[in-house]
Amino acid sequence: MRTNKLFIVLKYAAIILLVMYILLPFLWLIIMSLSSSADLTTKPLHWIPGKIDITSYKRLLLVGLNSRGSLFLYGLRNSLKTALAAVIISIFVTIPASWVFSRYPGKKNIILKIAIFTFMLPPIAYALPLYRILSRIGLLDNSLSLALVYCTIILPFCVWLIKENIDTIPYDLEEAAIIDGAGFTKRISLIVLPLLLPALGTVALLSLLMAWDEYFYAMLYTNSQNAITLPVVISNLASGRQSNYNLIAAGGVLASLPPVCIGLLLQRSLVRGLMMGGVKD
Q1: At 103, is the secondary structure helix, strand, or coil?
Q2: Per-residue pLDDT tens over the stretch 213-259
């Protein structure tokens, strides 16, 4: 009896510690964004601001000539554009590629294994070759080309995850459609796709998060308001002679909102998609 009580206490203590470990950094980010510069530089540090200060948010959201707000909003627009393009390209390539790898395994799986191996390589391994290619074809500082670069990271993982899900769909369903005269396109669109929707939601969400958070390639391949993304804009806020911590924190909070909102909307799809890929007959 005493052992059971101890187990329950330890279980709840572990849950509380895990929640605090996850949420406290974000909570501190919000507090910093609402604090004044004086509160953040005073010693000893004021953990709770004496007065709520939203000046940082105003500076990031108000547009003016060559203002930080303009650059931040350009970064937000470019991040949305690049991440959505990366998601759309990834989904369109992933579906037929995964279907082929699943239904016609054979020696093609070697290609999939090589693709997954490339997923393990650090981004620096591709940096110079990709830079030379983009430079030669004149696509540096371009949102679409940046999205294509992101696809080199995203696609191996997406194809592997969707293939695992297609493996769980009985081929008998497609055979029945073949008897009724369905071709390649109809089999995928009418039989496979409806059963893949949770997994596709998962892939779309993970692709969006990977593209949204990516910093290294964006820093190398963009340099103007035409294509610069939010991670680079926020890092530039800290590159001056004196860092404005509440402004950086406000940028972090605003940059977190789109993926958090989309993640909450697709949360159920994410869990179902991951579980489907892990269950096989």
Answers
A1: helix
A2: 899 999 999 988 888 999 999 888 876 666 688 888 888 999 988 88
Instruction: Give residues with Cβ within 8 angstroms of 137, minimum separation 6.
Output: none
The pLDDT of residue 183 is: 81
| Alpha helices, DSSP H, located in 180-242 | 184-186, 193-213, 216-221, 230-237
Opening angle at CA 87, ends 84 and 90, nearest 5: 150
Packing angle of the helix pair 68-103, 245-265 (nearest 10 deg): 30
DSSP string, 47-110: SS-SS---HHHHHHHS--TT-HHHHHHHHHHHHHHHHHHHHHHHHHHHHHHHHHHHHS-TTHHH
Q: pTM of the entire structure?
A: 0.82
Cis peptide before 194 (omega within 30 of 0): no
Rounded CA-CA distance 198/194 in Å is 9
Tell me the one-letter amino acid at 85.
A
Residue 11 neighbours by CB under 8 Å, 6+ apart? none
Least Cα distance to 230 among 202, 203, 211, 245 occurs for 211
The answer to whether 127 touches 217, Cβ cutoff 8 Å, is yes
Q: Decide: 160 and 112 in contact? Cβ < 8 Å.
A: yes
Residue ranges in the chain whose pLDDT is less than 50: none
